[in-house]
Amino acid sequence: MLPVAGVEIGAVAAGFRYTGRPDLMMAVFADGTAAAGVFTRTKAPAAPVDWSKGALSENGGTAKALVVNAGNANAFTGERGMKAATKSAEVAAAIVGCAPNEVMLASTGVIGVPMNGSLFEKPLETIHAGLSGALWKDAARAIMTTDTFPKGGSRVAEVEGRPVTISGFAKGSGMIAPDMATMLGFVFTNAALTPACLQAILSEATDLSFNSITVDGDTSTNDTVLAFATGQNVRFDPIDDPNDPRLDNFKACFTDLMTDLAQQIVRDGEGATKFVSVTIEGAENDAAARTIAKSVANSPLVKTAIAGEDPNWGRLVMAVGKAGEAADRDKLQIWIGGQQVAKNGAVHPRYSEPEAAAHMKGQEIDIRINVGVADGTATVWTCDLTYDYIRINADYRS
Amino acid sequence: MLPVAGVEIGAVAAGFRYTGRPDLMMAVFADGTAAAGVFTRTKAPAAPVDWSKGALSENGGTAKALVVNAGNANAFTGERGMKAATKSAEVAAAIVGCAPNEVMLASTGVIGVPMNGSLFEKPLETIHAGLSGALWKDAARAIMTTDTFPKGGSRVAEVEGRPVTISGFAKGSGMIAPDMATMLGFVFTNAALTPACLQAILSEATDLSFNSITVDGDTSTNDTVLAFATGQNVRFDPIDDPNDPRLDNFKACFTDLMTDLAQQIVRDGEGATKFVSVTIEGAENDAAARTIAKSVANSPLVKTAIAGEDPNWGRLVMAVGKAGEAADRDKLQIWIGGQQVAKNGAVHPRYSEPEAAAHMKGQEIDIRINVGVADGTATVWTCDLTYDYIRINADYRS
């Protein structure tokens, strides 16, 4: 991961749950850094989600620091949870020298275990003393729960003919880890953007990336994606219009990095043996296409068929049908690994099952379905549903 | 299963897919029998679903015969599928002596395999020659696919102080069988009801029974529930008002039988080791309660925790939150096996995890959640998600 002008970062083992590994990270930003966020849509959000949403709305979209811990989600912890979150932001603010609402928070880990906000103080002092522009991989490691590898990446975009860096990291092995079912993503750039512009770019990119992956359809109490734009080392004034053509390449690179991070999460889906792309075409609109794609990608019958390397296209028909969006059964077309399997609502006369079965034996599975209604399209990425998913998630917590 | 006046029934091995077992059944009704149906909401319904819906609407809600086969779903079979369905109804109509649209059809089995409507002729003649008022269990067996036991039952209700019989059978091991993911239910009574009255009673009972069970959230192309009221051996004229107080006991018995059949399906969920009741209280309304209950009952994280005998209430919070219906996180209350686990949005101070864990080791798991908004309630029944679910569904079809 490339350094980003205006971002210093660090991580430490604070002992929230794990021993012998960093589980707390902090990033500190140059003054005037714009911030934007996308949060879980759950009706039972964790305290840090409420905190960061509220802070962004209070301060108009700026941030001086980001603090993330792993091991305790501070979710379903009642009033004490919000007190602990507030305390941790106050502690970080005092160390960094800013208002508490300029501190963004995110947590991941066990649900329902009370958190002590004072636990943050000494570790954050230690991190602050050792902040560096280079410790990205440490930060990516510190936010892991049952992830088997740290997830990160960088892109260099061009704005007005000069390079701008975008770096980010994420965690999550889908929604499948015992008690630690959170997806977190953080993206940092030295581009100069107004908060509203950054929010627009982040929201659109999130739809095409983090909101286009699924492991089992479960949604966490803590899901959070935050973006920060420092405006350092650039020669242009903050851009306010997300449709400004100067941002075309930047937006493409930003979305590409977010998609890369999201796909890394799917590839780390626990128990996953295959990476599956589901593309829906011909839907009423793009949103309908995404709904149908998620219906396919979340179907246990489809996902177990993929685990069993079975080109079971009947289950694809079932999953399209149950999505509830318009689909013309008698115009339905299905492709598996590029081969057309079905057309006009029935099996294709030249369908070769051995050819489809050979594709299913690979690790990258491509499913494409045209539902024959209009022009809406969407692609969703998922993994298969295996014995190991059950093993991991049926394990008793203690 | 008790005989029902005005219903004669039979089954035979027709060889649609299986050998050595009956896979085709027919019931023949007294003249003037009222019929009603509830069908899959899929956008890709199978031909027999389209047929039966159309026939009921054409003939005003009456039936002379019911024909059901197992082994071939006649789904996603294009125009040929509807031709085959039409042919099979014509064949049955000629044998029984009625109009084709007085024949109700249902199929279950492999999707996408063309069906030959002429295959019905000889077996239906055989069945017709041996029709009897007693062959209910044969019929219940004939509609099985991967079911491990036939599912049926009877109730005797009282209308105007005299007994009325209700008998029914069903098939389905949830939506989890390879390629044969269909739930079928058929209920027969000698009560005298108008078609509109029967439809109203059936629709309400279906919501509380077949629409309140879930194995994996997948929806079949062929799901069908049909009810028939012969009006034989009763001393009252056909009742038209479903709210007529004379029907109070009948409706309770009807719903009780439907619920029994639906629960038999859940208990036969393949791979299932536990029968799980999820009751939601305090929702905005009953429909919202059912949505939340299904979100809990379909969550892979909840279902694997149950398989692992883990009273993992954090996952219940997650599943309530993701349902999208109103829930007050800070008033949420959760009970597992009667013990209160959480109140006011946090763990209950006297929660005993060993006591909850002991309940989870049983075969009947009770989960109750109050979401603290209003008075809506619903109960949904499901099973756990086990290794065997994966084994069964990842098996290659051939």
Number of domains of chain A: 2
Q: Measured on Cα atoms, how large is the radius of gyration of chain A? A: 22 Å
Helix content of chain A: 25-40%
Quaternary arrangement of the chains shown? homodimer
Question: Rough shape of chain A?
Answer: globular
Distance between the termini of chain A: 35 Å
Characteristic key phrases:
homodimer; 398 residues; alpha+beta; L-amino peptidase D-ALA esterase/amidase; Ubiquitin-like (UB roll); 2 domains; six-stranded mixed β-sheet; five-stranded mixed β-sheet; 11 helices; 25% strand
What does this structure look like?
The structure is a homodimer of 398-residue chains. Chain A is 32% helix and 25% strand. The first copy, chain A, has 398 residues and is of the alpha+beta class. Chain A has a 6-stranded mixed β-sheet. Chain A has a 5-stranded mixed β-sheet with strand order 3-9-8-7-6, sandwiched between helices. In chain A, helix 5 (195-208) packs across helix 6 (248-267). Chain A is globular, with a radius of gyration of 22 Å. At the A-B interface, helix 2, helix 8, helix 9, strand 13 and helix 11 of A face helix 2, helix 8, helix 9, strand 13 and helix 11 of B.
